[in-house]
Specification:
Length: 272
């Protein structure tokens, strides 16, 4: 357990990514990975996603100092199945592989069962997304006893304080309330399906999402302009001025009502 999965991931980077070889992760992915690499002096290589933003497991075959992949990936929203993770594990038997499952509850397939088979697989998770408890800072990692023992040893050598007791109580209550969890997650998935269909009807290309956000583009429209237009109407989505995704936007799924406001604004933008 740690104070959010960022805390657990940073600890795992420090603990496991310290060989002479660079670590590997996708070119379009969670923006914190390069931050930790620079902070901890870890060399890294980025493997490009293919043209449909999928991760090719064959790109992760060469010797490396570790692998980190979010599954589902962010900001693409695309999830890969167990065959994908199994391939990654078969190709990487000499380094630690971290699968970051921040969004898994929104339609991804968890690799936790594979941690029984591969003792170099560490799966991280968070209460910040599907359990809506970002402010409580609850994250965790699941892996073999060997990996967890190393994480504990590294953590206890500089900060032996645990997640605070209020957060632990909240976390336990959240896990027990299965009905509430299922109902909120399924609401988000239903709203995601609806928004995806509406955007597609308006001519957008929307990637198939397994997360609580969608990634969309429009062949005739500037997504940067749309982002700025929506911002002027106080509807906040995300735009990344980065290679390959600079004509995409990332839209987090809110309530039905919020998403209706969003769709109305998009229609106004398209009409102008
Ligand atoms: C949100 C997120 C995290 C970390 O969230 P915490 O609030 O620190 O638990 C980790 N990885 C990805 C890909 C995320 O989107």
């Amino acid at each position: 357990m740690g104070n959010g999965s960022d805390d657990v991931l940073a600890l795992a980077f420090q603990s496991f990514f310290n060989s002479d070889l660079p670590i590997v992760y996708p070119d379009i992915t969670y923006s914190f990975y390069p931050v930790w690499c620079r902070l901890f002096g870890i060399e890294y290589i980025n493997q490009p996603l293919d043209d449909s933003f999928r991760i090719n497991p064959e790109d992760y075959r060469s010797p490396n100092g570790g692998v980190v992949i979010p599954n589902p990936n962010a900001p693409t929203s695309i999830g890969e199945g167990p065959e994908f993770v199994t391939k990654i594990m078969e190709y990487n038997q000499d380094s630690v592989v971290i699968i970051d499952e921040a969004y898994v509850d929104f339609g991804g397939i968890s690799s936790v069962p594979l941690t029984k088979k591969y003792d170099n697989l560490l799966v991280t998770g968070t209460f910040s997304k599907s359990r809506s408890l970002a402010g409580m800072r609850i994250g965790f990692a699941i892996g073999s006893k060997e990996l967890i023992d190393v994480l504990e040893a590294v953590k206890n050598s500089y900060n032996s304080y645990t997640v605070d007791s209020l957060s632990m109580a909240m976390g336990i209550a959240a896990i027990r309330d299965v009905d509430y969890f299922n109902s909120t997650v399924s609401k988000i998935i239903a709203t995601r399906t609806k928004v995806t269909q509406e955007l597609r009807q308006l001519g957008f290309t929307v990637l198939d999402s397994s997360t609580n956000f969608i990634m969309a583009t429009h062949k005739d429209r500037s997504m940067k302009d749309m982002f700025l237009y929506l911002k002027s109407k106080k509807v906040f989505i995300r735009y990344f001025d980065l290679p390959r995704i600079n004509n995409y936007v990332r839209i987090t799924i809110g309530t039905e009502e919020e998403m209706q406001t969003f769709i109305n604004c998009v229609k106004d933008y398209i009409k102008q």
